[in-house]
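Students often ask why we bother encoding 3D structure as a string. The short answer is that it lets us treat folding as translation between two languages. Here is a chain of 286 residues written in the first language.
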Amino acid sequence: MFKIKKSYRGLYKLIFVLLLIIFIHYSIKNYMFDSYYKIVLFFVLGVLYYHIIMIVHELVHYTFVPNRKLNEFLGNVLAPSVGLNFKQYRDHHLRHHWSKTVKDDPDAYIYWPVIKEKTWHKRIKIFIFGSVSELFTKIKLKSFPKTKEKFFIKHSVLLAQVIVFLLFIIFSKLVYYFIFWLGPIIIVGLFLNRMRVLIEHGYDFENNINSTPQITVNIKSNFLERIIFAPHNFNYHQEHHDFPGIPYYQLPEFYKSKINNKKHKKIQHSYLSMLFAILFGIRLKN
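And here it is in the second language, the structure alphabet:
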């Protein structure tokens, strides 16, 4: 029997990410950077915001920290700051886990339009420009609940953005809210998440949305790819789908355990090589 270990190491990561975000915003406001450096910082902030999005994912599963109340508190604070209603996102994401086929997967709108295309140039076109339609779909599905909720829960995203907006007015510049907050979240964070979902769920199945099972794979990623695409051991994605209650910090250990002995579990190639294979319809050898 696999023993779950309690750990609060995620809090140290979160504190580091938040301090780094604050430091970058302070530097942007107080130092005269060239445009080149501001572009670099724009993308660095996007990666850091993406890390917060991935932390929200762990909070959804109560696996970020052992204390459930602390999980809930962090989720209701962090999720709206990056445009997600925590309750709505949890309901949506759990349906993603429960889905047996691509047709039933509420996240299929991210990867299905790409992989159903037969030609590589159409796949690349939809992969890149589909980010626009995905943004509006994501806002509709994950930001504003349609069900009756308490005011602060239902409008948490709007309230959080008003607070962040005011913080930029007080401590920075109003325009930076759009350039260095919303911009990196939408352009970098959304695209990284889009790429990750496509790679993890868009590889190696038939083009039949009605009968094709919703599948995923483990991915062999190096240190840099884990920082950019797969924080919190997200490259062990098959383990996460099969056993979502395993904390992220134990996924590598669980992958090697005797309990987790399914023969089909394989570490695939890197994120970038798999992205290339999906877009160009190439079969990779293990």
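Translate back mentally: The CA atoms of residues 3 and 189 lie 34 Å apart. Keep this in mind for the problem set.
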